[in-house]
């Protein structure tokens, strides 16, 4: 029997030893880090590619908060691409390919389209996309004749202030202010519509100073893909929708299937980062990086909803897995994402101290307003569902999409789940949770005498604790209220 001599550890087995610190306030530390080789983040948090955690709403807020979200893949290719596009469209001071309205539309059609798209203005164009005018909610507000052509109520081209695509945000801000207007169509030299700048979008730029953005000012977003040939189509659709990173999502990432997929994606897309995973060993990271991965996701069986270790006997306690993998990650300059098992800000500090660059969060975010699905009330308390992507119901739903019919008894019996379905308390807006988590991490950095995550890697010293030490670590010997 081959047996490693050292004992593998996880978060609750250790604590960090406080170090001499010159830091006066937790605001004096910075939490900047890298999600992948080319994507910097202001906050080291990533929302998990689970169908109860990340769709566009979560991904948008994670990026606004300085982290990033990975949109899960358990939906049609078209829908996943639309989710990516929705994040990319929401912020950026210039909307590219803005929604437009045909010059033949009526007032009623303009109202309907604005309602449907939840927007307050539409550029009116002809079939060649020449800008003819701009119609806003205000133009329509008191119009009694719903059948009136929109061209009669819009601001016509001659009176419209427009700019070209080279306009900077500061210039646009000045023009909007000077003319006391809220929308600025962007046109090319021939007067064709190229984009739209709105006062609201410029305002939003200031609201989220830490937001994770691409070089065109749009929020960044990642998307998960599997390892089947059809996943190349999925990847193409997500890349066309503007995705910044693709995450190869497979439970046993140290496999030819996953490595080949990373290789193929890397060859196909030069400007998109490819994240490989999941692995739990140094060789796993080395092979992933050899295949071209720009970041490696680490964690096998550590997740709150995972039963992989029970069902298969495989896995490595997460802190040891992260430590071992991060040593190779540092050697090869590739960020490590610690995925699974994070329950508190203390766990985040420990995972980073062990060498990861970010942490991926599942159940911790599943109860927030931005996670998919509605909340339910049980015994007077509000909950949301979280489920493992290898759980029984997740497996069956995937099967049903694949076979195009409802699953039968046989299909249910054939599933060997490696995850569970569960409930987590509803926890309100994700920004409040992330604020607490990053606040805790900032304190953690100051206890380590570290002003940055890189300094935390250097300064961190762990001690192993016993069950008595663990009991001492929480509130104890008092009646909590
Ligand atoms: P947390 O602890 O943050 O973990 O909820 C989230 C991570 O768990 C992984 N995951 C699974 N692992 N069976 C598994 O063994 C599953 O069904 C499953 N679903 C999710 C995944 O890495 C996720 O980010």
Written overview of the protein:
There is one protein chain. By secondary structure, the chain is of the alpha/beta class. The chain is built from 18 helices and 22 strands. The protein folds into two domains: 335 residues, Aldolase class I (TIM Barrel), CATH 3.20.20; 112 residues, CBS-domain (Roll). The strands form six sheets. Strands 4-5-13-14-15-16-17-18 form an eight-stranded parallel barrel, surrounded by seven helices. The structure holds xanthosine-5'-monophosphate. Xanthosine-5'-monophosphate binds next to strand 18 and helix 13.
What is the strand and helix layout of this fold?
Layout: E1 14-16, E2 33-36, E3 39-41, E4 45-47, H1 56-64, E5 68-71, H2 77-90, E6 94-96, E7 100-102, H3 107-117, E8 121-125, E9 131-136, H4 137-141, E10 155-156, H5 169-179, E11 183-187, E12 193-198, H6 199-207, E13 222-225, H7 230-240, E14 245-248, H8 256-268, E15 273-279, H9 282-291, E16 295-298, H10 308-312, H11 318-331, E17 336-339, H12 345-353, E18 358-361, H13 363-366, E19 376-378, E20 381-387, H14 392-403, H15 409-414, E21 421-425, H16 430-447, H17 453-459, E22 462-464, H18 467-473
Parallel strand pairs: 4-5, 4-18, 5-13, 7-8, 13-14, 14-15, 15-16, 16-17, 17-18
Antiparallel strand pairs: 1-22, 2-3, 6-12, 8-9, 9-10, 11-12, 19-20, 20-21
Bound molecules: xanthosine-5'-monophosphate.
């Amino acid at each position: 029997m081959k047996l490693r001599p050292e004992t593998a550890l996880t978060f609750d087995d250790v604590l960090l030893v406080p170090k001499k610190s010159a830091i006066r306030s937790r605001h004096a530390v910075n939490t900047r880090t890298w999600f992948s080789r080319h994507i910097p983040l202001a906050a080291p948090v990533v929302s998990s590619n689970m169908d109860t955690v990340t769709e566009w709403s979560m991904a948008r807020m994670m990026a606004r908060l300085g982290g990033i979200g990975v949109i899960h893949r358990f939906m049609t290719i078209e829908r996943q691409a639309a989710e990516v596009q929705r994040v990319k469209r929401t912020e950026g001071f210039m909307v590219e390919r803005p929604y437009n309205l045909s010059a033949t539309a009526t007032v009623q059609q303009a109202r309907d389209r604005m309602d449907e798209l939840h927007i307050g203005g539409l550029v009116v164009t002809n079939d060649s996309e020449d800008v003819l005018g701009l119609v806003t909610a205000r133009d329509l507000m008191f119009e009694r004749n719903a059948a009136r052509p929109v061209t009669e109520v819009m601001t016509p081209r001659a009176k419209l202030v427009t700019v070209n695509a080279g306009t900077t945000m500061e210039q646009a801000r000045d023009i909007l202010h000077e003319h006391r207007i809220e929308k600025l169509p962007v046109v090319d030299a021939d007067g064709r519509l190229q984009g739209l700048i709105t006062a609201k979008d410029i305002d939003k730029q200031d609201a989220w100073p830490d937001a994770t953005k691409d070089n065109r000012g749009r929020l960044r977003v990642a998307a998960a893909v599997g390892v089947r040939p059809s996943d190349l189509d999925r990847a193409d659709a997500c890349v066309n929708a503007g995705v910044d990173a693709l995450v190869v999502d497979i439970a046993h990432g140290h496999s030819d299937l996953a490595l080949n997929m990373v290789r193929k994606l890397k060859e196909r897309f030069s400007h998109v980062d490819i994240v490989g995973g999941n692995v739990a060993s140094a060789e796993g990271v080395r092979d992933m990086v050899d295949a071209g991965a720009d970041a490696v996701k680490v964690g096998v069986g550590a997740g709150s909803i995972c039963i992989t270790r029970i069902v298969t006997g495989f896995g490595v306690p997460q802190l040891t897995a992260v430590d071992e993998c991060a040593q190779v990650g540092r050697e090869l300059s590739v960020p490590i994402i610690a995925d699974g098992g994070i329950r508190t800000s203390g766990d985040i500090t420990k995972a980073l101290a062990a060498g990861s660059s970010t942490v991926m969060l599942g159940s911790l975010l599943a109860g927030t307003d931005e996670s998919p699905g509605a909340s339910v009330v049980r015994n007077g308390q509000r909950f949301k569902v979280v489920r493992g992507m290898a759980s029984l119901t997740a497996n069956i739903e995937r099967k049903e999409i694949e076979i195009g019919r409802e699953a039968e008894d046989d299909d249910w019996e054939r599933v060997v789940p490696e995850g569970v379905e569960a409930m987590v308390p509803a926890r309100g807006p994700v920004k409040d949770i992330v604020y607490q988590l990053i606040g805790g991490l900032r304190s953690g950095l100051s206890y380590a005498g570290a002003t940055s995550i890189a300094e935390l890697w250097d300064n961190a010293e762990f001690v192993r604790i016993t069950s008595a030490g663990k009991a001492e670590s929480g509130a104890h010997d008092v009646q909590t209220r």
